[in-house]
Every structure is written in structure tokens, then in C-alpha cells.
Write a structure and sequence with these properties.
Layout lengths: L3 H7 L2 E3 L12 H9 L2 E5 L7 E4 L2 H9 L3 E2 L29 H10 L4 H5 L2 H18 L3 E2 H6 L1 H11 L6 H11 L5 H25 L5 H10 L5 H31 L2 H9 L4 H11 L10 E3 L3 E3 L2 E3 L4 E4 L1 H4 L34 H18 L4 E2 L21 E3 L1
Parallel strand pairs: 1-2, 3-9
Antiparallel strand pairs: 2-3, 4-6, 5-11, 6-9, 7-8, 10-11
The structure holds flaviolin.
The site of flaviolin has 15 residues, from helix 12.
């Protein structure tokens, strides 16, 4: 048990200067904290003050599901963080606690059940086929980011949302600025408000002319009085940006992992039925992001792994370190397709568990199975040193993924 006087001595504030990492390298600071100081205090490059940083699997599950840790209490506080701005709008579901959180999610939950999403599969597969036809026509070498990982997730979420073709390049640009720490606060806030105006207009048009898409569902929820316009817009924005961006990067990281683990790739070619299991292990293994995202604030004193966290203090936790916790995963730093019970936390935990997890899995399955089936000799077209990795990114991924076949 700690007392206020001893906290500063026992938990010196570590400055976490988030470095750009290459490939799928695991952040050395995160690894060190997990193994040597599983609950610590950190200061990140933006915001003010410091925060607790919780790394172990069980502790991360506790912090992310116990109602004494609030997201709502983050709003309006200049919490220490990686990005210069906050990603979601203040009204967004990401900042809500139950019961408001439950109300906000309900409006869109139906579109993201496994059953609803299965209806998207044929269209998504056709889109992937068309993109790969084009890539094959152009011939090798080809950049998979340009041909597949960029356009496919953007097309899938835009179809679901109801964003028309001609607006998608704009969406991609706003999203990239919004989900990066590289452009500064002003540009990021501008991208956010541009996207918010866009969705305000889109939802208004759905009220006049209802359509069977997510924008239509959200507009209907505002008409019924279940959501305010600001809430509906904030949900649309978060879904559109996160879906396109997260899957673009994560699916590219999956392909990169396979191309740099040729035995694993060969095994998947020989045993296609292994794919869903392989995807779960890739989700566990891939460090999806730099540093940590949205924090929580303790609403009363709570003990985490024997450490007293006081009411009002800020807590960051990491799904990445949880996924490497040796108490839960044997040889956690190895990619192992035979691993059993891969209860990874890559989609989070608790009320904010990723709404799009089934959609992300579906898209990853289509991307990997299509590449495997169509390109039996797929390999990197350039030396590893020539692959560029995004800098100052929140979500990690390559800028280019040059392949040949
Ligand atoms: O990386 C972050 C992020 C990504 C995302 O796809 C959605 C988000 O709401 C966030 C976020 O809030 C904070 C991040 O650092």
C-alpha cells in the first residue's frame, strides 16, 4: 500500500518519449514497463501532468471494465497523451460511460452483428477481386497499400455508412490527418470539424430521403429522439475514420508479418482452414498502435495490483502489453499459429470493446485469403530497409508495401 508521501519516491514519473518504430518492433519502453514496473507513472509528449500506466493483462482488464474508471471525466481535461488533439468529438461514444454509452451504441449495434456483416461479405469480396484484377493488370511490382489495404477498407465502411464514391478521397484525407500526431493540433481539429460538417449534412439528407445504410440508421435515431444530432455525427465520424484507418494499417501489418515469416505463410497456404486462428494470433502479436490512446479517470480511490490510485487521477492502460503478458501467453513474443485460447485484448475490453471487431476480422480474412489464393509466389519486392513506416502515427503501419509475384 502506498501513501501520498511515498508515491513520488516509489513511482517516479517516467517520460515516455514515443519513438517511431519500424516494422512490427515492440516498443522497448512498453516491454520494460510490463516486465519491470507493471504499474507506473508516465508523462507523454502532449497534454499536461502525468498518468498511471497499467500494463498487465488482468490489471488492464480491471481498469477497462470497472465503472470506477470513467471516460466521461476525461472530457475537458488536458490529459497527458500522445496526440496533440483528442481524436473523438466530445459527444462521441468513446467518451461516454454507461448508461449513456449503452444508449449511444444501441443506435448502431445492429449493423455490426456477425449476422448483418455476413451480408457484406459478397460485396467486399467482389471489391477485393476488382482491386486485385487491377493490380494484376498493371503487373509487378505493386504497392499493396495503394492497390488493396488503402481502398478496400475505405470502400467497405463507406458502402456501409452510405458515403458516395466521389466523397471517399476527401474522407481518406480527413481521416489521415485526424488519426495522426504529425500534423499538429490546428490541422487535426480542422479535419475533425470538416468531417463533422460533412456528416451533419449527410444525416440531414437522410432525413429528407431515408436510405438503408448506417447514415440512415443514425438519422432515424435522431428523428426518434434517441440521439442528438451532435451525438449521431460523432458516432458516424468515429466509425468512418476508425474503420478505414485501423483496418488499412492492421491488415497491412498482417501481410507484412506473413511475408517476413515465410514458414507461417507456407503453412497457411497448405492449411487454409487455419486462417481464422492465424488472424487471431496476428491480432495478438501485431503492435497495433504507438503508445496509448484514450485514458480513464478514477472517480474514487481504487487499488490496482496493490497500488492505490486516488480519485481524480488519470489512468492509461495498454492492450499491447496485455497481449504480451507471460502470465497469460506462453512465449508471448513469438508468432505461433498453434497457440490455444488466444484471448487477446486487441479489440479492447469492457463497454468500449471495439464495435467493428467482426467487420475487421471479415475484411482481414478477405484480404489474406485473396492474396494467398491468387498469388502463390507473393513476396516483398524491396529490401526491408526500403519499406517506409508511418511517422508520428497513432495507429502503426507501412506507408508502402511493395510486392512482386
Ligand atoms: O489512436 C487513437 C484512436 C484511434 C481510433 O481509431 C479511434 C480513436 O477514438 C482513437 C483515440 O481516441 C485515441 C487514439 O490515440
Amino acid at each position: 500500500m502506498t501513501t501520498t508521501e511515498s508515491v513520488a519516491d516509489e513511482f517516479p514519473v517516467r517520460f515516455w518519449n514515443v519513438e517511431d518504430l519500424r516494422g512490427l518492433d515492440f516498443d522497448p519502453f512498453m516491454a520494460q514497463q510490463l516486465h519491470e514496473e507493471p504499474v507506473s507513472r508516465v508523462k507523454l509528449p502532449n497534454g499536461e501532468g502525468h498518468a498511471w500506466f497499467v500494463t498487465r493483462y488482468e490489471d488492464v482488464k480491471f481498469v477497462t471494465s470497472d465503472p470506477r474508471f470513467s471516460r466521461q471525466a476525461v472530457v475537458g481535461r488536458p490529459i497527458t497523451r500522445l496526440a496533440p488533439h483528442f481524436i473523438p468529438l466530445d459527444e462521441a461514444v468513446g467518451f461516454a460511460d454507461p448508461p449513456e454509452h449503452t444508449r449511444l451504441r444501441k443506435a448502431v449495434a445492429k449493423a455490426f452483428t456477425a449476422r448483418s456483416l455476413e451480408r457484406l461479405r459478397p460485396g467486399a469480396q467482389r471489391a477485393a477481386n476488382a482491386l486485385l484484377d487491377e493490380m494484376e493488370d498493371e503487373g509487378p511490382p505493386a504497392d499493396l497499400m495503394r492497390h488493396l489495404h488503402g481502398p478496400l477498407p475505405l470502400a467497405v465502411i463507406s458502402d456501409l455508412m452510405g458515403v458516395p464514391q466521389e466523397d471517399r478521397p476527401r474522407m481518406a484525407e480527413w481521416t489521415n490527418i485526424q488519426l495522426s500526431a504529425a500534423y499538429g493540433r490546428e490541422a487535426s481539429e480542422k479535419a475533425k470539424s470538416g468531417m463533422a460538417s460533412y456528416f451533419t449534412e449527410l444525416l440531414r439528407s437522410r432525413l429528407e430521403e431515408p436510405r438503408d445504410d448506417l447514415a440512415g440508421d443514425l438519422a432515424e435515431a435522431t428523428r426518434e429522439g434517441d440521439l442528438s444530432t451532435e451525438e449521431a455525427v460523432a458516432i458516424a465520424l468515429l466509425i468512418q475514420a476508425s474503420a478505414a484507418h485501423a483496418v488499412r494499417n492492421n491488415s497491412a501489418n498482417m501481410v507484412y508479418a506473413l511475408l517476413t515469416h515465410p514458414d507461417h505463410l507456407a503453412r497457411l497456404r497448405a492449411e487454409p482452414a487455419l486462417l481464422p486462428q492465424a488472424i487471431e494470433e496476428l491480432l495478438r502479436y501485431i503492435p497495433h498502435r504507438n503508445a496509448v490512446g484514450l485514458a480513464r479517470v478514477a472517480t474514487e480511490d481504487v487499488e490496482v495490483a496493490g497500488v492505490r490510485i486516488r480519485a481524480g487521477e488519470v489512468v492509461h492502460s495498454s492492450y499491447l502489453t496485455a497481449n504480451r503478458d507471460p502470465a497469460v501467453f506462453d512465449h508471448p513474443d513469438e508468432l505461433d499459429f498453434d497457440r490455444e485460447h488466444i484471448a487477446h485484448l486487441s479489440f479492447g475490453h469492457g463497454p468500449h470493446f471495439c464495435l467493428g471487431s467482426m467487420l475487421a476480422r471479415l475484411e482481414s480474412e478477405i484480404i489474406l485469403s485473396s492474396l494467398i489464393a491468387r498469388f502463390p509466389k507473393l513476396r516483398l519486392a524491396e529490401p526491408l530497409a526500403d519499406i517506409r513506416w508511418q511517422r508520428s502515427a497513432l495507429i502503426r503501419g507501412p506507408e508502402n508495401l511493395p510486392v512482386t509475384w
